[in-house]
Design a protein that fits this description.
Blueprint (H helix, E strand, L loop, with lengths): L2 E3 L9 H7 L8 E3 L7 H7 L4 H12 L7 H5 L2 H8 L15
Antiparallel strand pairs: 1-2
Helix pairs in contact: 3-5
Length: 99
Amino acid sequence: MKFKSTRGSVAGISFEEAVLSGCAGDGGLFMPESFPALSRDQLRAWSALTYPQLVERMLRLYVDQDEMSDQDIRGTYTLQTLLTHTHTNIVNAHTYKHH
């Protein structure tokens, strides 16, 4: 997966380069050059995953194996925090009524 600037003059950047750079040289933000297509079967299978497992699968879509191994992804601060989080609602969703 390669990343490009939202302003268009920087492209072909690796995940590592994008993260370490912060912002693109043209002042834009980095975004994927393309977005992976997910099949209905894949989404259905993912619906049974725990939240940390889902985050891991989603990260893998954007981070190439040669840049970060599965073990390294599992070892990230975010996933370690999610794995040790004991609250049943990791993401709280509220419904608000429009008046």
